[in-house]
Amino acid sequence: MYRNHPLAAHIRQLRHKPYFRPSLYGCIVLLSVYVLYHTTHPQSSSSIDFPTSNVYQPPVEVSEEVWVERANHVKLAFLHAYHGYERYALPHDELKPLSGRYQDDFGGWGVTLFDSLDTMLLLDLKKEYERAIPYVEKAVFAMPEDDHARYFETVIRYLGGLLSAYAISNETVLLERADRLADKLDNVFNTPSGFPMFGVNPSSGAVSGIEIGVLAEMASLQMEYTMLAKATGKKRWWDRANTVIQALASANLKYTGGMLPIKWNLTTAQPHDVHLSVGAQADSAHEYLLKQFLLTARTDKTSLEMYLRATTHVIANLLYLSPTRHMLYVTDSDTSPFDARGKPSHVFEHLSCFFPGLLALGAHTLPLDDLKSLGINFEALGSESSFGHAGKAYRQLSQYNLKELHLWAAEGLAQTCWLTYADEPTGLGPDEIEMKTSKFSDGFLWMDAMDRWKASGARGIPPGVEDKVPDVYTEEDRIRGNGLRRDYAIKRKGYLLRPETIESLYLLWRITGDSKWRHRGWKIFEAIERHTKTPYGYASLRTVEIVPSLKDDEMPSYFLAETLKYLYLMFVSEDLVPLDKWVFNTEAHPFPVFAWTEEEKERFNI
Ligand SMILES: *[C@@H]1O[C@H](CO)[C@@H](O)[C@H](O)[C@H]1NC(C)=O
Ligand SMILES: *[C@@H]1O[C@H](CO)[C@@H](O)[C@H](O)[C@H]1NC(C)=O
């Protein structure tokens, strides 16, 4: 189904490059290993010896052909999950992996199929992709009268999946369906602010939701609508994205130091609370500030400035170190006009584990140590007249090389995300933990520790960034409640097959080239195979603390769209999705970076 699109050709070309380049000898060795492997391992997914319990061992370097094998294991995992879905759930939304039944929570139009399209193209699964296309052709996005579709989920999963697969394959029907779906959702924008409502019935056009919107749900559409405008040439889709960008940029953020809070009034386009987070209900809105800038070939400076404000506030006020193990974490907080730090909850969410990857992507792609080259005056971004108490954070961060600082924060946070996996007997991380704070202070701000480290000569690795050794609980430890030995208590025990930690490990591997991140990714994949696999697919875990695992009857579509895709991209030798040419939406659907033409700029009024 690939046509002669330059992007498809790019992917094809990469795929056919030899995996191993140093010498002809190397190629021959690799080829023999590869052939031998494939002739002796017809069922390689069952031949692997996955460890039964998690005992920490430092990674052993392996050759590139082992990584080729590992990527292939992920491909087999994808096929196991997708074939289970095709056989037992299609055309419904999601497979129930324990009972072999299905569920419909995302419109009932087959969300797993739409969410998997570009993964199939990247993994070169032509048969599955070709079987999926007729379902895309038939999709009319109809819904019974008393029901509604969640706008945000529909955009990131369906629209994102269609647009990404279109960018890779140039298959016209994918774009047509995306355009049709956006049409059917369009009533959500009938608000005075131009921020979307929560839900809509695509058949009747009836909208649902209250006057107060949630940040992530109202401000994670810019990439999809920009991409749709570029591909269809329709100004109205660009207008939808741009209205949201401009409304965010002109909101009054005095009380939150320039960072976007969670709740917003959809009538006035102004904040409705002062709660700050990079986790649930906020995450992808912060993500899209950077990614919108990257997608548009670095022209949307408004979004970039908002990204710099958000990350400056987070680094100065929401990053903490745990008291004993010095685990770096990001938490949420209610701020106030007089207190930038506010009241931190010290809860650390799995959802926040995308943030280290985002920081690393920013450090990799932006001239953070030379913002002047973009015409940005860093300190002026935090002008106290517009952003209340923000000034102090900008003065503090200006003392550092900002690129280095963002990357340190990324590495320290990713370290913690990984540690919460490696600390568990299953090797999988819990959905939410609460960090211990000392009796004498309400937590240790990372930047305070950084300032002390700097004042004492900045020797060695900065606080919170150093490698740590996991502390795996025994059953007895758990029952005796030796919980806080590890510096945190588990608040939500489940592992919901989520991608965020893996996403950050993937980005750190690509950006730093340090193979420890890739090895950690492999350990997590082994744990997924060992503890979540069922005869039908893969199942969320009820608790990460018990082996053998207790499973729930759920296999979210993001497991195929994100978790398995990032794992595959981490192990495969070629850089299939170069980070300077593609940008992932928040559901891991890659969109190609593009520049507006002069004609588009004029017509769209950019
Ligand atoms: C993509 O497909 C369209 C319509 O089928 C065609 O006109 C166009 O030339 C194709 N573009 C590329 C780059 O292959
Ligand atoms: C939203 O703002 C409008 C206009 O100021 C106000 O009348 C309304 O009460 C606000 N909504 C809520 C739920 O606070």
Mean pLDDT: 91
Ends: how far apart? Answer: 35 Å
Low-confidence stretches: 1-47
| Bound small-molecule species | 2-acetamido-2-deoxy-beta-D-glucopyranose
- Overall geometric form: globular
Structural class: mainly alpha
Number of strands: 19
Report helical residue fraction: 40-55%
Strand content: 5-15%
If strands are numbered along the chain, what order do they take across the biggest sheet?
3-4-5
Number of helices: 24
Outline the structure in words.
With 606 residues, the protein is mainly alpha-helical. Among the domains are: 141-242 and 579-605, no CATH class; 251-423 and 437-485, no CATH class. Helices cover 48% and strands 10% of the residues. It is built from 24 helices and 19 strands. The strands form 7 sheets. It has a 3-stranded antiparallel β-sheet with strand order 3-4-5. The protein has a 3-stranded antiparallel β-sheet with strand order 6-7-8. The chain has a 3-stranded antiparallel β-sheet with strand order 9-12-13, with helices on one face. Helix 4 packs antiparallel against helix 23, helix 10 (222-232) packs antiparallel against helix 11 (235-249) and helix 14 (355-365) packs antiparallel against helix 18. The longest helix is centred in the first third of the chain and has 25 residues, at 64-88. It is globular. The two termini are 35 Å apart. Mean pLDDT is 91; it is low at 1-47. The chain crosses the membrane at residues 20-37. InterPro entries: 6hp_glycosidase-like_sf (IPR012341), Glyco_hydro_47 (IPR001382), Glycosyl_Hydrolase_47 (IPR050749), Seven-hairpin_glycosidases (IPR036026). Its EC number is 3.2.1.-.
